Amino acid sequence: MTSWLANGMILLSGMAIGATSIGGVLVVPVLSAMAGVPMPQAIAASSLAFVPTGLLGWRTARRCEPDGDSPWPLHAAALIGALAGATAVHAMPGTTARVGLALLTAASGLYGLATTRASVSARRPMPSQAQLSAMGLAVGFGSAMSGSGGPVLLLPLLMLCRAPTIPSVAAAMAIQLPVALAASTAHLLAGQLPVALGVQTGATLLAGAWAGRLLARRLPERALRVGTSLCLIAVAGWYGLFHRSS
C-alpha cells in the first residue's frame, strides 16, 4: 500500500486531470519513487487506475462531441497500440522507463505552459481516419509503455494538426478508457497486474478528478494550467535527479 504522501500526490494528479486534463503522467513516478513500487508494477497499476477516470472522461466526452461525431478509428487503434505497449513494458530496462517518464513529464508541463495563451481555434475538420488511426496506435503504445492516461500524448498531436479544440479535448478524455482497459488486460494476462494497488490508486484518482472539476469551475483556467504545468516540470526534475543519484 502507498504512503499518505504518495496518496496525496496521486490525489493532486487526479485533480489536475479533472481540472486541466493533464497530470496523469505523475502517477508512475509517485508510485515508483515515493512508494517504492517496481517500475513494471507501477506502470501496470497506473494503467488499471485510469479505468474509473477513463469512464468519467468517456461520459464527459460524449457530451462534448459535436453532432454526435465519434473518432472511433482513434480509439480502436489505441486499443491495439495499448496491448502492444503493455506487453513490451516487461521487457523494457528500468532505466529506460525512468528516463522516458521524466522526459514525458517535463514535456507535458512545457506543453501546458505553451498553451496557456492559446485561444479556441476556429472550427476545422478533425484529421482523416488514416491519421487518427496512426495517432491512436502511437498514443496507445506510448501511454501503455509509460502508464500515463493518454491525453498528455494525444492533445499535443491534435493541436499540431490544428484540430478543433472542443472535439480534441473530448477525444483526449475518451481515449483514457480504451487505453486503460487494453493495457490492464495485457498486464493481467502476463500475471503482472497488482490489482489491489491499481484499485486503490484508481479510487484516489477518481476522487481527485471530481474535486478538480469543481475547482475548475471556481478558478481561472489559465491559473490552473500554469500551476499544473509548473508542478509537472518540478516533479520531472526531482524524479530525474532522484534516480540519477540512487
Structure description:
There is one protein chain. The model has no long low-confidence stretch (mean pLDDT 82). The protein has one domain (4-245). The chain is globular, with a radius of gyration of 16 Å. The chain has helices at 4-20, 27-34, 39-64, 72-89, 94-114, 129-146, 151-160, 165-174, 176-189, 195-216, 221-245. It has 246 residues and is an all-alpha fold.
Briefly characterize the structure:
This protein has helices at residues 4-20, 27-34, 39-64, 72-89, 94-114, 129-146, 151-160, 165-174, 176-189, 195-216, 221-245. The protein is an all-alpha fold and 246 residues long.
Mean pLDDT equals: 82
The helix content, as a percent range, equals over 70%
- Runs with pLDDT <50, length 5+? none
Broad structural category: mainly alpha
Residues in β-strands, percent: under 5%
Treating each run of at least 4 consecutive H or I residues as one helix, how many helices? 11
Taken from the alpha-carbon principal axes, the silhouette is globular
> Strand count, sense and closure of the main sheet?
none
* H/E element order: HHHHHHHHHHH
Please count the beta strands (DSSP E, at least 2 residues each).
0
* Alpha carbon gap, first and last residue: 22 Å
Radius of gyration: 16 Å
Number of domain units: 1
